[in-house]
Queue: 2 jobs
Job 1
Amino acid sequence: MISDEVLQPIEIQKKDIELALAGNESLDTNDIEVIVSGSNVKLVGQVNTWLQREEAGRIASNAAGVKSLDNELMVTFNEEYVY
């Protein structure tokens, strides 16, 4: 049965994405900025490894209501993370 109600898009909560990123121990979120525009999320800033960049993108794209992600995080290699 199809409802007569119009489904409202889920409003993306920037704070929820920031908290999810901060809750991941492998990420240093001090240099990550989350920008929300409609159903799009953009990540800008820098991380120390490609893995951190991908992980941040995965977390942000899994947030409720996100339809697209622009992951513009730059990887700045830190000797602390080089083996």
Job 2
Amino acid sequence: MPKADTPVVKTLRQSVKTAQAPGVGFALFVILLICLIALVAGFAFGIFFSAEPTGKGITLKQAEQTLNTEYYECIK
């Protein structure tokens, strides 16, 4: 039975061959790693730069300072 090489199949085969070229996988890995690091860093430190109130009339930064003060007093 002969293979049906339509233009779509030819394009897909060429795309797969290109994606398997040396270095493409590594470059994709590096790009995804950088994006993941940026996502984690932005999420982890975003709460410290927020100025939104917590619902009790204080900002998250003020709540953090209060908790730190109380914690340091307990340590002493």
